[in-house]
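Title: Prediction job returns without error message
Component: structure pipeline
Severity: low
Priority: P3
Assignee: unassigned

Description:
Job completed but the reporter wants confirmation the result is attached to the right record. Sequence as submitted:
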Amino acid sequence: MIYHKITPLTDEDQATIERLSTELGLPPLVTGILVRRHLTEKQQIEEFLEGKPQPYYDPFLLKDMDKAVARICQALQQGEPMTIYGDYDVDGTSASSLLYLFLKARGASVDVYVPRRDTEGYGLNGPALEKLARKGTRLLITVDTGISGAPVVDQAPKDLDIIITDHHLAPRQLPAALAVVNPNQPGDTYPFKGIAGVGVAFKLCQALYQKLHHTDAFWDDLIELVALGTVADMVPLRDENREIVRKGLAKMPHTSLCGLQALIGVTVAPGAAINSGTIGFGLGPRINAAGRLDDAMVAVQLLTTEDPARAHDLASQLNSANQERQALSQKIFEEAEQELARQGAPEWGLVLGREGWHPGVIGIVASRMTEKYHLPSILLSVNGDMAKGSCRSIPPLDLYKALDRCREYLEQFGGHAQAAGLTIKTANIDAFRRAFQEVVADMLDQVPYEPAAHPDYFVPEGREVTVEAVQQLSRLEPFGVGNPAPVLGFSHATIDQVALLGKDQNHLRFDLHQGGFRYKGLLWQEGPQFHSFYAGEQGAIAFSPRLNTFRGVTSVDLEVAAVEAPYTIIDWRHENRNKETELNSILQKDRKTVVYVEDTVPLKTKFPEANVLPYGTEAPEGTRTTVFYGAGADRVLSAGAFPLDPRQTGRLYLFYNRDDLVALRDALRRSYPDLGGMRFCYAAIRHLLQQQGACREAQLLGRTTREGYTISRQVLDIFYELHLFTRDRELVTLGDTGHKNMQESKGFQELQATYDRKFQQLNRSWLITPAEIAALWRTGR
């Protein structure tokens, strides 16, 4: 659902925005975003837009860097065999490749070892170190891993020196290595803590370069590899990272690395720009596919090869592996949904596991589950007595801290605030699931997380989003974590028209306007939400502006990210849906739901915990979601009768459908018979009187014919008017038997007029537009 809360800007300094716009010659739209990101000084902004004269910090500011450099220089001088021990993701493989190429170019006897995810798991492992030592390795340098490997380092072969370079959060016990280089360890004073694993390896290369060449110059010959891992690892693109990525992206189209060239060739269309999105959605997933499904060394071989033909083969291999990974992740996602249905909807977090789930893919699926359910998600690949897990979090929850509070159930864990990995005994999964739920609830103060869009800048109603302003937004690149692509907002926009797009009608488009300016809004993959928007809907819109050129004319389109409408109406009147299933889903998501129905008893029996009320009852205070479940809504769709107060903003679902209305229309017809119905009523009365000679009027009132028509007071009065029956002292007898023109009866005409009036009222509940219902809602009772 694309309906989300849109956070307003309460600290927007319009005077500062206008001042900077004049000083820098930038549109207010651009300076508004900069101010939102706490860039308010001219020099500060110029450095952000143009780059710093010196973008790099002194690598020797990293704790233990001098020790690491001294030991590596010794190995270089003495020709000692070295092994780089890396992680299997993009950050780890790019860091391994970077350090390998740097050392190899300086004559080192160096090799790379990346553990297999499926058989060795995450981080350092003892058997691997013993195997490497037996083969002659005397110095082992980790990249992007090792900070949680204190037990392994303690048991490592005594003739193996170990240098740890990592960027992950440090545990309580650090490895007793020769050197530990990690900006996030206690006692480190490096000015920027956000560098990736490849960033730490990069700083090691810079320090080695300065030491070996007796210079203060900053080496960055392979900056494109550093940018690759930095973007893919989703570290903040601020400070030093921003400069790394800016310089790396500029160099990437002209890289001398034939493997990277080949990978770009199978990923990027000829002539297309290479930006952070290219890495995040193209290059990164293909490199990751190697470690997820098979052996991450394939990625290292690709990034370090000097043979163009081999590079082409390896790039094709990774591309195929990525396609396989996509199919496998979809399968696991569907099975995770089945597991969730079996467990029932948890309130605070998902812990799902199954035998045989591929450990290299569950992280992707965990991300999808978190995105869909807005809950921290842990997916476990069960293998006999042990299980390996990938964890993804929601913004307000520090996942690493949550796992730390559950450590008694875990064999091992590590990672960041938003993503982590763990190992657990299968027997502990259920207990861990319960503990994790309790910890998350406590850390969130028992308040469920609700996703919200946070626009960088709300466009004033009198200002247009112009082509020129959108072009200037590119100056804020590169985009990524810490510097996301700008999201703009309209505080008060109106949707004019809604339509489906695409061959499969899986996209949405709506025309909208604000402040006299009109735009085309695009909602990709939101076709199923067609019924959730309506012409005339008003609310806040969060969007990313995009330029669209058609027949030589360039215009601004809006890729809509969120809509917050105070009077949201989900119109399912024309949908063939299972109402009970949909209602059950709504009740699970929002307990402050009121369900209106004509007859409350059947629905209350099926949903005893639901707040089921008859139409006409005022909604209780605090109602956030309302459902008009069945026909009968016509009773409240008029001025003064609507059950919701204008201050009770939220969602209204229109669940009644054509079948409901047809049933009510038929019941209405039976209560107010037409000519055919009157004949059935006449025949039923006449048959009774022929048997009895006479009967009391009370015997006839409310009687139902075999065809279902009701004999009412109006019906009897019409027969009396036409003298078809006579009434004397409450006794009814047969009257004239001659032909009568029913349509000339004033009583019959009034009966049909009453039917027409009630039918129009009933039909109004089918024909009334959501915008008209919203108008009633705004007016209230």
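Comment from assignee: result matches the submitted record. The first strand starts at residue 5 and ends at 6.
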